């Protein structure tokens, strides 16, 4: 036990350093304005207040951006989960020509620098008349999260024994029933894992929100809305930190809930 | 045909019929319907735009678009700025990969040597950093390093010091945030890899008198090669594409563009300067670099014998 004192101490110190920015964000969001300006900042507060949150939500209508972000992220999770599930079943349960080629293409697609595609996608979205809409964001993230979702789900589908399907078939289940009543629930843990990644991609996106949502500020999402608090003369750090907390907490909860599945899903996706 | 082998024969036939019936085509159709217009077509468009004279006048339709061949590329190659941005991108990404891997690997090894409670504390902290959106990670670190109100300057007594004023310290600050965000992936993946190693091998090495350092380099690292290859490639791809942190923390690429990377440079050329053709050419260069990395990755996968 004693020989672990040194590594344990190091680990704990590292954990403190790594967690500190998150702690400082939450703390600063709760500090009254005077303490944020204070010349001697202390790592605690004796007068926690929700002032910053109220300012952010009431004055700056942050709730609206929160809902916008949520709509985009949840739509992307649902759409890309559904479509990826179908594709993953096709790629694991059937042998056909070009199957390997398709798998490699899905892998390559994950490497494509989507940032470089902003320019053509901007014109595409403009020609669709979808600039300034949440729909434009759902559309691009639907496409961008699909390759990883297919690649990750493949492992989960492959892990389901063939016999289950065969037994169901002998019992007279149709292919639709096998697909939705049997495979779909069994892959649910995998869908949760891929869902987190899709959610985070859509939730965190700054680039496309910045490019597509030009004038319709009411359709802005959280990452862009955060910039509102940066002022040339003086940044409203209390507001920025409160807004950052509002943006971080949903992902954090999501992440911790499916943490185990996430790691196994990722390991599966990475291993292949 | 005897009654005995009729059973399997029927099953096999039923199975092959099922395979034909369940033609996988319609199951792949939705994915194709999304990826072809929103992924494949834009890639083609990017290539096309890069050989066009495409600026504000062409966007608004005031002037016809004109095919100019590789003029955009020639313009890039002759601009000192392009080379300095390319160089900065490569050096910045390489430094990030090295630091992320070193930190992630060191902590993965540390995880195997500590008590459960300490491992949980470290994992939770890492998860929090991993989950934090790039945007909020950037804002928090900007606050910590703020010129006047930042904790770091207050503690160091450096009030008034601007961390993004100088090129190197601005890159370093952005780099710190990126490493903070991305080391957990490396740590978790390598830790899972180490845990999966057969213990007997390491014990045997210990019995043969190998110290921890020796057995790490001679046994753990070679056996983990496939996992290491994957985290290296993933990190390269990830670090080459950093956008949000640079854009937000250095306010669009730093003072006089000193902190531009290819990504941000392409974006600025297209959307700030309305040089869409030129921006697309930069995008193509980036695409080619990452394609090369991807091909190396695929070769490694093949060599490690993973069936696709």
Verbal overview:
- Chain B: This is N,N'-diacetylchitobiose transport system permease protein.
- Chain B: One of its GO terms (biological process) is transmembrane transport.
- Chain B: Keywords: Cell membrane, Membrane, Transmembrane, Transmembrane helix, Transport.
- Chain B: InterPro entries: MetI-like, MetI-like_sf, UgpAE/MalFG_permease.
- Chain B: It is found in: Cell membrane.
- Chain A: Residues 66-258 form the ABC transmembrane type-1 domain.
- The complex is a heterodimer of chains A (272) and B (308).
- Chain A is mostly helical.
- Chain A has 13 helices and no strands.
- In chain A, helix 9 (175-204) crosses helix 13.
- The longest helix of chain A has 32 residues, at 62-93.
- The radius of gyration of chain A is 23 Å and the shape is globular.
- Chain B has 2 domains: 1-36; 70-303, Orthogonal Bundle (MetI-like fold).
- The radius of gyration of chain B is 26 Å and the shape is globular.
- Chain B has helices spanning 3-21, 25-49, 56-59, 71-77, 80-112, 116-131, 134-144, 151-156, 167-195, 199-207, 212-223, 225-240, 244-249, 262-272, 276-303, and strands spanning 52-53, 66-67.
- Chain B has a two-stranded antiparallel sheet.
- Chain B is mostly helical and 308 residues long.
- The chains are: A mainly alpha (272), B mainly alpha (308).
């Amino acid at each position: 036990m004693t020989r672990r004192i040194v590594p344990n101490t190091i680990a704990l110190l590292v954990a403190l350093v790594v967690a500190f920015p998150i702690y400082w964000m939450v703390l600063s969001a709760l500090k009254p304005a005077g303490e944020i300006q204070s010349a001697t900042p202390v790592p605690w507060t004796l007068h926690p207040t929700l002032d910053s949150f109220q300012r952010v939500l009431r004055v700056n209508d942050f709730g609206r951006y929160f809902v916008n972000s949520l709509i985009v992220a949840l739509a992307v999770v649902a759409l890309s989960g559904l479509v990826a599930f179908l594709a993953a079943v096709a790629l694991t349960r059937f042998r056909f020509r070009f199957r390997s080629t398709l798998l490699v293409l899905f892998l390559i697609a994950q490497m494509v620098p989507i940032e470089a595609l902003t320019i053509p996608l901007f014109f595409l979205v403009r020609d669709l008349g979808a600039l300034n809409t949440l729909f434009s964001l759902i559309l691009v993230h639907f496409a961008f999260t699909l390759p990883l979702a297919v690649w990750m789900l493949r492992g989960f589908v492959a892990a389901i024994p063939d016999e289950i399907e065969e037994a169901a078939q002998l019992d007279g289940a149709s292919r639709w029933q096998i697909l939705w009543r049997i495979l779909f629930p069994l892959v649910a843990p995998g869908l949760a894992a891929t869902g987190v990644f899709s959610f985070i991609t859509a939730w965190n996106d700054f680039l496309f929100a910045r490019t597509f949502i030009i004038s319709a500020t009411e359709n802005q999402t959280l990452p862009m809305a955060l910039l509102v608090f940066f002022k040339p003369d003086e940044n409203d750090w209390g507001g920025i930190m409160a807004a950052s907390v509002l943006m971080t907490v949903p992902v954090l909860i999501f992440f911790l809930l499916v943490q185990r599945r996430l790691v196994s899903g990722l390991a599966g996706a990475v291993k292949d | 045909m005897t009654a005995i082998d009729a059973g399997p024969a029927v099953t096999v036939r039923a199975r092959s019929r099922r395979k034909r019936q369940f033609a996988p085509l319609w199951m792949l159709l939705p994915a194709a319907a999304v990826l072809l217009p929103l992924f494949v077509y834009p890639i083609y468009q990017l290539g096309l735009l890069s050989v066009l004279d495409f600026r504000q006048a062409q966007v608004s339709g005031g002037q016809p678009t004109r095919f100019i061949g590789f003029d955009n590329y020639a313009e890039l190659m002759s601009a000192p700025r392009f080379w300095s941005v390319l160089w900065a991108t490569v050096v910045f990404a390489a430094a990030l990969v090295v630091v992320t891997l070193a930190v992630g690997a060191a902590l993965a090894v540390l995880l195997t040597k500590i008590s459960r409670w300490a491992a949980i504390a470290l994992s939770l902290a890492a998860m929090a950093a991993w989950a934090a959106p790039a945007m909020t990670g950037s804002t928090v670190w900007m606050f910590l390093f703020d010129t006047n109100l930042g904790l770091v300057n207050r503690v160091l007594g450096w009030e008034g010091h601007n961390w993004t004023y100088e090129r190197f310290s601005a890159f370093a600050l952005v780099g710190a945030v990126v490493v903070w965000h991305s080391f957990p992936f490396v740590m978790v993946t390598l830790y899972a890899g180490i845990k999966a190693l057969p213990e007997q091998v390491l014990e045997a090495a210990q019995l043969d008198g190998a110290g921890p350092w020796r057995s790490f380099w001679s046994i753990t690292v070679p056996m983990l090669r496939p996992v290491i290859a994957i985290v290296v490639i993933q990190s390269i791809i990830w670090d080459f594409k950093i956008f949000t942190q640079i854009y937000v923390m250095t306010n669009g690429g730093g003072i006089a563009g000193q902190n531009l990377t290819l990504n941000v440079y392409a974006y600025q050329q297209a959307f700030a300067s309305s040089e869409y053709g030129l921006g697309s050419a930069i995008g193509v260069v980036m695409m080619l670099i990452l394609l090369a990395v991807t091909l190396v990755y695929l070769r490694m996968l093949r060599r490690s014998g993973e069936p696709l």
